[in-house]
């Protein structure tokens, strides 16, 4: 009979641990995307169908869970900025950062909160975020030098944009994305030096959706 120290039992335990981890991350992604980071660990455990003690064994803190959930998005954010900086047209690169980050935020309410969160990140995530912000700063300077971006734009204005975009609440994801594109269009028009660009189509929003 196999006991807890046998190779078969150990492999079973590892499979169970991986399965629990995947269930936790899937549940947390779903909850954070819809409700942001104001979701308790007990709620995540219930959605995952596991006990709270099991959740805390895998993720001792909420910060550890949030970081793990959004690792791919952090990497995607860095890739967006790298592509933008490599674009020979600095305004097009700047615009793509604003548009793509706004859309990502509109479809995943937890991501921007995680990116801008004050809690400590592991060194690799913190370094990646700082690298992304430096790349965005370089993109700003290129766009200004090209005469496309107003001279008084500062990197903190991106945070201001994300704060405004985070206020978009719509009943349907498609409406949220449309509203986010419209808002980004208005703000890009304000950021641009010279003649404004045409705005995206209006979003199908209702007054009762205002919170």
UniProtKB/TrEMBL annotation:
Q: Which SUPFAM superfamilies match?
A: Homeodomain-like, Tetracyclin repressor-like, C-terminal domain
Known DNA-binding region:
40-59
Against InterPro entries, the record matches this protein to: Homeodomain-like_sf (IPR009057), HTH-type_TetR-like_transc_reg (IPR050109), HTH_TetR (IPR001647), Tet_transcr_reg_TetR-rel_C_sf (IPR036271), TetR_SbtR-like_C (IPR049445)
Q: Which domain of life is it from?
A: Bacteria
Q: Does the keyword Nuclease apply?
A: no
Q: Which residues form a coiled coil?
A: none
Q: Which UniProt keywords apply?
A: DNA-binding, Transcription, Transcription regulation
Please indicate if the UniProt record lists Transferase as a keyword: no
Q: Which residues form the HTH tetR-type domain?
A: 18-77
What is the name of this protein? TetR/AcrR family transcriptional regulator
């Amino acid at each position: 009979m196999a006991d807890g120290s046998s190779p078969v039992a150990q492999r079973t335990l590892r499979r169970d641990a991986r399965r629990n981890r995947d269930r936790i991350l899937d549940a947390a992604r779903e909850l954070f995307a819809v409700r942001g980071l104001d979701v308790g660990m007990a709620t995540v455990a219930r959605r995952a169908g596991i006990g709270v003690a099991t959740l805390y064994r895998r993720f001792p803190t909420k910060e550890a869970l949030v970081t793990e959930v959004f690792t791919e998005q952090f990497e995607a954010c860095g890739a967006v900025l790298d592509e933008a900086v490599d674009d020979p047209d600095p305004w097009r690169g700047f615009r793509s950062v604003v548009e793509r980050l706004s859309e990502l935020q509109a479809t995943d309410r937890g991501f921007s909160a995680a990116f801008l969160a004050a809690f400590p990140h592991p060194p690799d995530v913190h370094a990646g975020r700082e690298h992304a912000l430096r790349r965005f700063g370089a993109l700003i300077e290129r766009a200004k030098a090209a005469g496309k971006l107003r001279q008084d734009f500062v990197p903190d204005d991106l945070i201001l944009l994300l704060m405004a975009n985070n206020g978009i609440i719509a009943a349907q994801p498609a409406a949220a994305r449309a509203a986010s594109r419209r808002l980004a269009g208005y703000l890009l028009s304000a950021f641009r030096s010279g003649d404004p660009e045409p705005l995206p189509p209006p979003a199908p929003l209702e007054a009762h959706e205002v919170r």
